């Protein structure tokens, strides 16, 4: 028997390294961007929506992982809100979560989502800066 540790695959990608880190601001209003993709880290750091005071109170941690091996396909966007959590899913490979209580924006970004779309459309929609699409409530009623 050997005492070597066994490394199991991280199928949920919970332990992905985020070597690209940018921070700005003081302790209370610190903006911190972490990613495994330099283009995402730079795009989020430079985006206007992240720096607007009305989109966030206090600091914000953004941890975004570019998922190069995850599923792709579809472009439909769905949103779910429950208390302090707000979740945006685009297609099968992109999931973004904003936790207002913990001031965190976490997500997996599909390899097919361009950074421009992420910072100009998806993140603003998640943070509530863009109006959500209205859903016809009659579609959910029995006739």
Q: How would you explain this protein's 3D organization?
A:
The chain has one domain (20-128). It has a seven-stranded mixed sheet, covered by helices on one side. 18% of the residues lie in helices and 30% in strands. The protein has helices at residues 38-46, 48-51, 115-127, and strands spanning 20-24, 31-35, 60-67, 77-82, 85-90, 94-99, 104-110. It has three helices and seven strands; from the N terminus they run ββααβββββα. The protein starts with 19 loop residues before the first strand and ends in a 16-residue tail after the last helix. The chain has 143 residues and is α/β, with parallel strands linked by helices. Mean pLDDT is 81; it is low at 131-143. Helix 1 crosses helix 3.
